[in-house]
Specification:
5% of the residues lie in helices and 56% in strands. It is elongated and about 85 Å long. The strands form 9 sheets. Strands 2-8-7-4-5 form a 5-stranded mixed β-sheet, with no helix packed on it. The chain is built from 1 helix and 36 strands.
Length: 434
């Protein structure tokens, strides 16, 4: 009996305490307020502008945070968030927000102001218009080989002076440029890392070390395509890296062979492979999502250039015993068809003008291939086995050999400008603002 009374007393006290607490704690039904004075609804900005904002955040309770972020009309963030912890209430802030993505499409966006008191969240949306950034050529970039195991990369400044942005001692396999992320990539074969630096200053960003393979090689070639850096590895696969250095793609391993050139199509990543023992050559198609090997095609020539045309078609430039070939690989049908034979030398490097026109640097000069007429036209006999790139914005060709960089008008072939280069050029890239 005494035990029951004690239990009843405990329950009564607990209920009383709970009642007192519930009376003392009132639910917070008051939402914070945000008053924005800058920018105004309808303000117009260019990509790269700095938005000056001014806002007042207030509430009857302590504010936990205040933030500003650019979102689209579906409230999806498009740029990094600006966050600050208010030290008083009301809290007034004046700050700057940079439109920092050069690839941001033009259109109507919203600057979202947000705050919370820990219970309630308030948003205030300001409509703004952002003009898309026009693509512009910033500068050519060359990689030089001034001495044994010494490699240097230079950019051409507005004052027509070559500025060194990166150098290292080791071996060399290739380089690539990601203009959208302002990144430059360079790698060796086995002695040197795959390294990314920030353009234009050349600040180190990240690196990937070569792995161990029986051939005592590793990085066999790199190419940048849209948003991914594709790296051919001696292990027999092609790997994809994002601009943070994270591996986000890897093909199945094609046994006993090493890839070099690669190209991405609608459905495939196609690599050119050479057997480590027999030296037989193949084009191998992997699914461009999961990396599964789909098919391979045995070929007889040594590939120097692969360029995606449309769907799963690739234009193949290759050499064989003193002559050259231009062929078409159809990844859908897994067929390889000869388009054009060239008997007057070998191909060295290729570049895309558009889906119908291509540049070829070779042992007898610079050539222009027109796919719709299947014709190969001599363009310049001066630039032999040169590095070549094409600027579609100005319709200018950039061609560099051991001593000079020439800028050539297309299609007239006349030289517009020429520059001495700081060393024998082994690679040439054009860097854009987006």
């Amino acid at each position: 009996m005494m035990k029951n009374k004690a239990i009843f007393l405990i329950i009564t006290i607990a209920a009383f305490v709970g009642f007192i607490q519930s009376c003392n704690s009132k639910s917070d039904e008051i939402f914070p307020e945000i008053s924005v004075s800058k920018p105004m609804n309808g303000n117009i900005f260019d990509n790269g502008d700095t938005i000056i904002f001014q806002a007042l955040f207030s509430d009857d309770s302590k504010l936990m945070y205040a933030e500003v972020i650019l979102v689209d009309k579906a409230n999806i963030p498009k740029l990094p968030v600006f966050t600050i912890t208010p030290d008083k209430n009301p809290f007034s802030i004046t700050g700057s927000y940079i439109i920092s993505d050069p690839l941001l499409p033009g259109g109507i966006y919203q600057l979202r102001f947000r705050t919370s008191d820990g219970t309630n969240v308030t948003n205030n949306f300001i409509d703004i218009q952002i003009h898309e950034l026009d693509q512009q050529l910033l500068y050519p970039l060359i990689v030089t080989h001034p001495e044994t195991n010494r490699w240097e990369a230079y950019s051409l400044t507005a004052a027509n002076i070559w500025k060194e942005i990166y150098s290292y001692t080791g071996d060399y396999s290739g380089s690539a440029v990601n203009s959208a992320a302002s990144q430059f990539y360079i790698c060796g074969i086995v002695q040197s890392d795959l390294t990314a630096v920030k353009l234009p200053e050349g600040k180190f960003l990240w690196s990937v070390k070569p792995e161990i393979h029986q051939s005592q090689r590793w990085f066999e070639g790199i190419t940048f395509d849209n948003t991914m850096l594709y790296v051919s590895c001696a292990e027999g696969n092609i790997r994809g890296y994002d601009n943070t250095g994270s591996e986000i793609y890897k093909t199945e391993t094609y046994p006993n062979a090493s890839p070099s050139h690669s190209a991405k199509t609608k459905n495939f990543v196609v690599g050119y492979f050479e057997d480590n023992f027999s030296k037989s050559k193949s084009l191998v198609a992997f699914h461009n999502e999961g990396g599964k090997m789909i098919q391979d095609k045995y070929i007889f020539t040594e590939v120097v250039g692969l360029h995606h045309i449309e769907n799963d078609n690739i234009l193949v430039f290759s050499n064989s015993t003193g002559q050259s070939e231009i062929s078409l690989y159809d990844g859908t049908a897994n067929t390889f068809s000869l388009l054009h034979l060239f008997y007057d030398g070998t191909f060295f490097e290729t570049a895309v003008i558009d889906k119908n026109n291509f540049l070829i640097s070779g042992s007898t000069g610079l050539y222009w291939f027109r796919m719709n007429t299947n014709s190969l036209i001599s363009f310049s006999t001066e630039m032999i086995n040169c590095q070549v790139a094409f600027d579609p914005l100005t319709q200018l060709i950039y061609a560099s050999n051991s001593s000079i960089l020439k800028v050539i008008d297309f299609p007239s072939g006349s030289t517009v400008e020429s520059y001495s280069v700081p060393g024998p050029a082994v690679d040439l890239h054009l860097v854009y603002n987006k």
